[in-house]
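Incident review: delayed structure delivery

Summary: a single-chain prediction request sat in the queue longer than the usual turnaround. Root cause was a stuck worker, restarted by the on-call engineer. No data loss occurred. The affected request and its eventual output are reproduced below so the record is complete for anyone auditing the incident later.

Affected input:
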Amino acid sequence: MKQFRLTVYDKYIFTQVFFAAFVSILLFTVVWIAPEMLLNTIKRTLAGEYGIKTAVLILTYELPKILGKAFPVGLLLGTLFTFDKLSKDSELTIFRAVGMSFYRILAPVLVLSFLVTGLCFVTYDKLIPMSCQKLQAINGVRPTTQYIYTQKDDSGHPTKAVVVSKFSLGDMQNIIVLDFSKKLYSDVHQLSEIYVAKTGKCLENKWILNDITKYVITSDGIFKDILKLDSMSILDGKASQNAYTLMMYSTKRDRDITNNDLKNYISLLKEENMTEEYRFMLNKYFQRFFHPFVCVLLAIMGTLLGFSKPREQRLVGFTIAIGCIFIYYITLPFFDLLAEKGILPPLVTAIFPPLAFLMCIIAFYKSKDL
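Output delivered after worker restart:
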């Protein structure tokens, strides 16, 4: 324990890496937000669509989405810059000469990286979903989209399909309801009735459709009768609640949902046998826990890259660092697709990129001979 007690060295390295990482995060944020987001906000402010206060709030609420990626990148560049400077000034040589091991040199960096990991986790779990809700409220956005909900029996055969052409909160327009008969064919499910409604409303325990045209179909697939109905209810009880929840979540991206809500959504997807969506969201849920620890891995990588020779070009380390970041983030959608299609389990696709990064760090450490 004496070897790892807090020393002047720890305070010095912690402070140096902290400020270097802070500047890197700030620069990353400015570069990310400046080109389009800032320009559009300024244009709308000058056009009178936003007031000064609203414009400031919009930029503030956009920050969490940027910080989620800025934290690991900033930590990598901050550690790389700090230890590269220490190498060039021969300070690392002095630390090694007095008997400090690589792990002891790394200790204050690890402490800072775990703190940043916690910030990254909170950002994805709380700040980003909250900021998305605030932005929607400021812009007056009511998400609208199309949605299809299918009820199935215990054997997995569809019994009813509800196609909503357009909805916003609980109001629906142009709804088509397909009632399937119990008669099954090898290549198709027989329809018994089709309902086409102009409007609809999602209530607590049922869906109400209005201004309906009903098409009755014979077992031969021929329209038998066409009727007009003023209103009717569908999807009573739990089915109506599940369908409404799924429909509302279909307007959101995974980053707009807190961890707890995402967990409940995943359970509902599993209950409704929505296999692909379930695997994709489960992969995203696991990523919420594994990927913040990339901050720790990138901090170690930056430290290793900083251990350079006095005359070694600084550009080499920064080029490797940027390449690692690019490869890491560019491969994430690929693993998302593998999880969604069931090629690999969601747990594997979520943990593989950080694990692969860790393997590369171990190999790089051995090649450095530290």
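Verification: The chain has ten helices and six strands.
Action items: add queue-age alerting; document worker restart procedure.
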